[in-house]
Amino acid sequence: MRPLALSLAVLALAGPALAQSADREAGKRVFQRCAACHSVDPAAGAKFGPNLHGVVGRKVAGLPSYNYSAALKAQKFIWTEAQLDKWLKGPRALVPGTAMPFPGVADAAERKVVIAYLKDPILGR
Asked: What tens-digit pLDDT sequence spans the chain (125 residues)?
């Protein structure tokens, strides 16, 4: 195989991994807006808000160690990517009466990368 063809083949194979790494870093940067109130470290407890490690797939208001608002406790959904997108777009629009003071993330691309970051199995390590 010629050197250029070999280089292109290597880049083609590495492309998804490089893109995933870039998305993870972008998600981590966006998450910094959340980090004052939320942790993603599996060994950490709650801050002002609940720990978000493993949030994707978790029942809403599902951490027994956190005192959620009555509005959030009344909800009956699972934190899927779609639900997280709605929440991140506007928590009070999704759950009127929530105690979360965050206004939301308007940019869909930023919501997408932060959700990918929250899904990351090595999150918090």
From this structure: 454 444 334 434 444 544 456 777 899 999 999 999 999 998 898 999 999 999 999 999 999 999 999 999 999 999 999 999 999 999 999 999 999 999 999 999 999 999 999 998 776 54
Domain ranges within the chain, ordered by starting residue: 3-119
Nearest to 38 by CA among 96, 93, 106, 88: 88
Query: What does the DSSP assignment read for 33-81?
Result: TTTTT----TT---SSS---TT-TTPBTT--TTS---HHHHT---B--H
Q: Which fold has domain 3-119?
A: Cytochrome Bc1 Complex; Chain D, domain 2 (1.10.760)
pTM of the model: 0.80
CA distance linking residue 24 with residue 113, whole number of Å? 7
**What angle separates helix 3-31 from helix 108-119, to the nearest 10 degrees?**
100
Q: Which helix (H) or strand (E) holds 14?
A: helix 3-31
